[in-house]
Amino acid sequence: MSYLVRISIAAAACALFSQTATAQDYSQQFGDLGISGTVKALYAVENPTASDRFALGGALFLEGIQTAFQERYRVGLSDLELDSPGLMTDLSSNPKPAPFTPDVITDLFTQIGTTMDAAQASLAPITSTVEVAVTLDLNQVWFDVNANGKRDVYEDLLPVMVPLFVSRWKVEETLAAFDDAGGAPTVTFDISDAAWLQASTHVFA
């Protein structure tokens, strides 16, 4: 089963099981503010709902990966491949990279760990007795790889994230399949996804 089929099935399943709650749509925040801007906006929400906490946890999870991309771009590690989120995909080349020092990788993992800890803290109050319904158009999500605060062509979610999930020789085929399908899906996450996201932050920390 192709990656596109799997993610489409997942999107449909999420939508089906989330019908008991009115979904909160965070797509525009991610599109307009970027990942880090969305994190700041969600931290500023007074009396956050379980959906707000889930969205914040998800944004922090993505911010941890974005941090890895930004640090790699800063020092010119555009084609680095290590078995860790943020280190398994090629990035656009930095024409003026900063010098690489031995502590770059150590600092990078420290930053990722700190962000994942924050994501876990946001998700921790979510229990199985509450409702979570978070809608996100994945076409609106982008990674500020060069940290310039603007969305560049190569910073869309799919070109950056697909290489993390499929074999290198399947990347172009998978991206083409998404293009044929009209881009990335819109997904609605529910309470069952909170446990999955919590587990993911532990794996990637």
Overview of this protein structure:
With 205 residues, the chain is mostly helical. The protein has helices spanning 3-17, 27-43, 50-74, 103-123, 157-165, 171-180, 191-204; strands at residues 24-25, 134-137, 186-189. Helix 5 (157-165) packs across helix 6 (171-180). Residues 1-20 have low confidence and may be disordered.
Share in helix = 40-55%
What fraction of residues sit in β-strands? Answer: under 5%
Biggest sheet statistics: 3 strands, mixed
State the low-pLDDT regions, or none: 1-20
Strand adjacency order, main sheet = 1-2-3
Tally of contiguous helical segments: 7
Q: Give the distance, in angstroms, between the N- and C-terminal Cα atoms.
A: 29 Å
- Principal-axis shape: globular
Regarding quaternary structure, what we see is single chain
> What string gives the helices and strands in order?
HEHHHEHHEH
Radius of gyration: 17 Å
How many beta strands in the DSSP annotation? 3
- Structural class designation: mainly alpha
Kindly report the average pLDDT value: 85
What is the fold's blueprint, element by element?
Layout lengths: L2 H15 L6 E2 L1 H17 L6 H25 L28 H21 L10 E4 L19 H9 L5 H10 L5 E4 L1 H14 L1
Helix pairs in contact: 2-3, 3-4, 3-7, 4-7, 5-6
Q: Which terms would index this structure?
A:
3-stranded mixed sheet, 7 helices, 205 residues, disordered N terminus, 5% strand, mainly alpha, globular
Short description:
By secondary structure, the protein is mainly alpha-helical. It has helices at 3-17, 27-43, 50-74, 103-123, 157-165, 171-180, 191-204, and strands spanning 24-25, 134-137, 186-189.
